[in-house]
Amino acid sequence: MSGAIYTATSGALAYQMRLDVLSNNLSNMGTVGFKEDRTVFRAYLPASQDSISENLQTTLMSEEPTTLESYQISNSLVAFEGTRTDFSPGQLKQTGNAFDLAIDGNGFFCIQTPDGVQYTRKGNFTLNHEGVLANQEGLPVLGNGGTIKFTDGKDFVVDKEGNISIDGEEIDTLKIVNFTAPHSLEKVGNTLFAPTGPGITEEKAEGFGINQGFIELSNVNAIRVMLEMIEVLRGYESYKKVIQSVDDVTSKAINEVGHLA
Questions:
Q1: What is the mean pLDDT of residues 175-190?
Q2: Are 106 and 206 in the same domain?
Q3: Could you tell me how far CA 208 lies from the centroid of its own chain?
Q4: Which of 7, 64, 93, 154 is deepest in the core (most CB within 10 A)?
């Protein structure tokens, strides 16, 4: 079989993977604290299978979409490497709800889960059945002193530094952490993150501010994603036509070459 059909097929599959990621980003545009994913590809020479280009297609930190054609390499195969999360901040929206908290700057809220501490930017919190500050799934939000349990007080205030007061009495401080390489975190669901290995440790976040009565929206740019989806669909159709053309040529060669007139 012609090597060209393998090259074209790998390109078509890469576009399909990219479309799946873009579709997931778009579907979570309204999810509080959602961080969009960017696709990462790698090119290989068929003869040696040696990698010849790392991160072949990634728009991780770019506002402009990057096309696979920009990195087209003759007779190469394109392999889907996975996704990386874009941790750029989303816009803050005022809600007026005292339990809605948003981080202005770098850092993550700490959430106690059955699988250990995980991290999020999703700050639309509430009180669970035990009177503990928790996320929408009922998992406790952590302060420097552990879980944050409420008493009979009603006036709940969080200042810019994350200090929590109830009826004027300070009870704890939100535990806000950061990572030197946040891209080493992997998604657990859509808004929780967990370290990918034991060597990845949290550190105390600095230079942030807590905005009470605000939530952080997703960082998905709907217009850009729609434009990328159009680009991907056009690219996929182009590869599909190449595959059909190669198949037609191969079929013609098999059926006609060597036949006597």
A1: 90
A2: yes
A3: 21
A4: 7
Query: DSSP label at 234?
Result: H
My answer on whether 97 and 205 are in the same domain is yes
Which residue(s) pair with 102 in the sheet?
A: 211
Q: Structure tokens of 239? A: 């590869």
Give the model's pLDDT for residue 81: 78
Residue 222 DSSP one-character state? H
The answer to whether the beta carbons of residues 91 and 121 sit under 8 Å apart is no
> What is the model's pLDDT at position 16?
84
Model-wide pTM > 0.90: no
| Cβ–Cβ < 8 Å for 72, 78 | no
C-alpha to C-alpha distance for 130 and 147, rounded to whole angstroms: 11
Residues 205 and 109 placed together within one structural domain of the fold: yes
- Residue 118: enclosing H or E segment and its boundaries? strand 116-120
**Which structural domain range is residue 132 located in?**
92-216
Which stretches of 86-198 are DSSP H helices? none
Q: Is 261 within a domain? A: no
